[in-house]
Amino acid sequence: MKNNFTNNQSMNEDEIDLRELFITIWNKKIFIIIFTFIVTSIAFLYILLKNPNPIYEGKIYFEMGEMKGETFGSKLIENTNDLAMLINITFDENIIDNKNSNLENPSAKLSKGTTKILEIKYEDEDRELIKNELNKIKEFILARHEGISKLYNIAINTKQIGEMKISKEAINKPKKALIVTVAFVTGFILSIFLVFFMQFINSFKEEKN
Question: Distance between alpha carbon 97 and the CA centroid of its chain, in Å?
């Protein structure tokens, strides 16, 4: 009987605590609504003001060709990392033309998990420019490797893998819905925290007095 009484008492106390919490939130609902609205509005204004020029991204992939010889066996026409560095240095006109630009064009690197697949990425506001620049790089690679392969009796030329891909959507487009949603949830939670924090401060002052 004593255990049942204790359990019932604990349940009643929990119900009272929850009721008091709900009453506190309800009494401060205007503050919570206004605070949440302000935080959400700030996020919305941020989205409206942060309207950067759209940046698009283009990608192209190459599979490195191979050379074969009696003395060295089979090896790539050119080391992929060396070629990536050469492309980055040769075609990065951004350093000269636009020192204030945050773009690093092109970005050539070895694809993850491979030793012979080269990924080349180019970013710009002009999708046609991206296409032209990637085509220039393509011509450079194929012509360079074709010349190297002529020095050997047996060679497999470097080739493009798949089609060139240029994004239709801007890669720097802000995620408006996500930003507003996060701001709303954050504002709501923070407003409730402030309500209970202010209540705690007031209770502390009353006890002190």
Answer: 27
What pLDDT shows up at residue 5? 42
- Is the domain of 80 the same as that of 34? no
Cβ atoms of residues 31 and 195 within 8 Å: yes
Rounded alpha-carbon distances, angstroms, from residue 187 to 25, 41, 144, 197:
14, 10, 58, 15
Report the distance separating Cα 182 and Cα 43, nearest Å.
Answer: 9
Predicted confidence (pLDDT) per residue in 152-167, tens digit: 766 788 899 999 999 9
Residue 95 has what pLDDT? 43
Q: Outline where the chain has alpha helix (H).
A: 2-27, 29-49, 80-91, 94-97, 127-149, 176-208
User: How far is 97 from 111, CA to CA, in rounded Å?
Assistant: 28
pLDDT tens per residue across span 43-65: 888 887 876 788 999 999 999 98
Distance CA 195, CA 199 (A): 6
Mean pLDDT of all residues in 23-31: 87
- Domain residues for 95? 56-166
Check whether residue 97 and residue 152 sit in a common domain.
Answer: yes
- Residue 71 sits in the same domain as residue 161: yes
pLDDT at 133: 92
Amino acid occupying residue 130: I
Which residues make Cβ contacts (< 8 Å) with residue 111, sequence separation at least 6? 61, 117, 118, 119
What b/e sequence results for 11-31 when a residue is b if at least 16 CB atoms lie within 10 Å of its CB, and e otherwise? eeeeeeeeeeeeeeeeebeee
140 pLDDT higher than 90: yes
